[in-house]
Amino acid sequence: MIITIDGPGGSGKSTISRTLARRLGLQHLNSGFIYRAVTLLVLESGGAFDDHDKVAGLIQGMNLLFREDPDRTRVFIADRDVTDRLKDPDVTPQVYKVANDPFYRTLLVDLQRRCAAPPGVVAEGRDMGTVIFPHADFKYYLDATPEERARRQHRDLESRGHSQSYADVLAEVLDRDARERNRLVAPLRVPEGATVIHTDTLAVLEVVERILLQVTSGARGGAAT
What we know:
Blueprint: E1 2-6, H1 13-24, E2 27-30, H2 31-44, H3 52-60, E3 64-68, E4 73-77, E5 80-81, H4 96-99, H5 102-113, E6 121-125, H6 128-132, E7 138-143, H7 146-159, H8 166-182, E8 195-198, H9 204-217
Parallel strand pairs: 1-6, 1-7, 2-6, 7-8
Antiparallel strand pairs: 3-4, 4-5
């Protein structure tokens, strides 16, 4: 079974996807962590995002591992736990330099598709239902207002000891939305046949239960809720 969950940053994809995968006994693919891990490696190697040969070497040599803890997905590059670094303020604004590059995206397609081994996967990202798994069994698109998504991300940064202002976080959210929706390759959009869920006023478990009800009943998407 392949379930895709797309949507902009801060819409609730990660927590909802992880919880859903655990409930269904499926693997969980957070594609955003893959792009963030590459971004971190590029920054640590000097920040030359336009050096395709160098970045391709980093991607091809990247030993990326995921481990599911009870409350979060932990990300390792080789034996190094980089989970807490991936959403730091120096990484987040640079992710688009990898994500918006057609060459880098092509290199990462196969890596993501290999995660769909039996019994299946809940795959979250920006192009899971449009590019990576266009024939997924179930497709969802989570959304929320930019203000609400900025509030969530601001709370997360504060909880990890970062002092970035809400206004700055909101500006980054709006900039990232524009880049993701307007890029030439794999732009963020609602996949054909996806169920759209607005999460502004919904708890994580409410969204998970809605999806579970649809998946277990075999009902296909295409509606907005």
